[in-house]
Give the backbone structure.
Amino acid sequence: MDDFPPRTNGFPPLGMDSGFWKASSSRRRPFHDRYPTLDRSTVTVVVTALAGIVFGLALAAPPGPMNAIIAEESVLRGWSAGFRAGLGAMLADVVFFLLALAGVVAVVDSYPAVRPLLYVLGGVLMLYFAVGAFEEARSAASFTDVDPGESNGFKKTFVLSLSNPYQIGFWLTVGVGLLETGQLDVFAHVPGVGDLLRNALVVQTGSPTLLVGFFAGIAVWIVAYPAALVSAGRRVDAFAPAVAAFSAVVLSGFGIVFLAMGTFRVL
């Protein structure tokens, strides 16, 4: 059987519609050559903003003590309390961002004794907050019968975030990368397609766009996460005490781990 398309040493076969030839040839050209009308600067800005949002969500969304407190505040006291708790954690990231910008975070990390003390302090605070969460879990009969009381979620998350070694570690590693001026070509080093997709997805690090997107991602999480919890709590009457108990367990677990890690490092 004859080859299709015929071998023509780089030239389209005579008498043959060249549409297929052009289409197959265009697939082998780099991304920016195939779409010359795209404004690269605009694409880079959009991609950088989206990358910042993804980074912010990646920092804010994983389960942990901060999200446990946000969950507890949301189901016991409503969306605004959960949102304020999220703001406390976000404000701590703003503080770390400013300290990283000034180089203070790196200076603090240069003292070996500081991080173990932060582990111990964070562990003690988490265990203290866990006791309060257990008490609220016992007193909360249902989502609708909860006595809101005073909301301290903002103070809890802010203090815990400032004493969280993992958050400090983030700003010493990924955070520094966000602040350093440069470009990251996401697809350039992907095996097999790197040449074809070169300049297709470029993130501008150290740019205001990336940082705005980063904090926008955190803001999306602290708005949406409490809203989802409140919505679920209104459908399931026993949701509030269950979330409060889960928050207490998470805080206790992280508190014990942090306290143990700090103690072992000091000793």
